[in-house]
Amino acid sequence: MNRRDLLRSLATAIAIPAISGLPADPSFALGRRAHRRARAGGLQVLDPHQGETVATIAEMIIPATDTPGARAAEVHRFIDLLLAEWAPDDDRRQFLEGLADVDARARAASAPDFLTATEAQRAAILTALDAEAQERRKAQRDAPPHFFERMKFLTVYGYCTSEVGATAELHYEVIPGSYDACTELGRWRAAPGDF
CA 84: distance to chain centroid? Predict the structure, then answer.
C-alpha cells in the first residue's frame, strides 16, 4: 500500500466518523479555518520543545516524500490551536501527559528526550505506542482515546485540511454549490483563499 492509499484509508476510517457525524464539506471547511487561525499566531498551549516534538511525531506519521509531509503542513500549529481553543481541560491534560510520556520513553532508551533520540529509537517508541493504542481500543471500547490514537487522528485531520495536504496530496477541487447546466466543472479549483 502506498502513502496516498494509506492516507485515503485513514481519512475515511478514522477522521470522518470521529468528527461527530459532520458531512465531509463542513469538516474540511472547519479544518481550513483552523489552519488560517493557527498560521496567524504563535503556540498557545505547547512550549517550543513540545511543539517540536509534536511536529517530529507528525512528520513520522506523514513523512515528506514526493509530496510535502506533516511538517510542511504545519500540523503542530493546527494541533496547538485545537488544544487551546477546542479541547476540554481533561483532553488537553491527557495530551500533554502523553507528550511527557514520549520523552520519558526516550530517556528509558538512553536518550535525553524524543528529539535527540536516534531514528531507530523514535520509531521503536512510536511503534510501542501504536501497539498500546490498538490493545487499549480492543480491551476498553468506551475508554478515552490513547495519546497516540489521538495524535494520529489530529495529524491526519490537520494534514488533509491544510492547503499543502488538500492540494498536493488529495487534489482537492471545489465543486460549484448550485446546478448550472452551462458551467464547465473543470475550471473550478481550490484557491488560496479557501485555506
Answer: 15
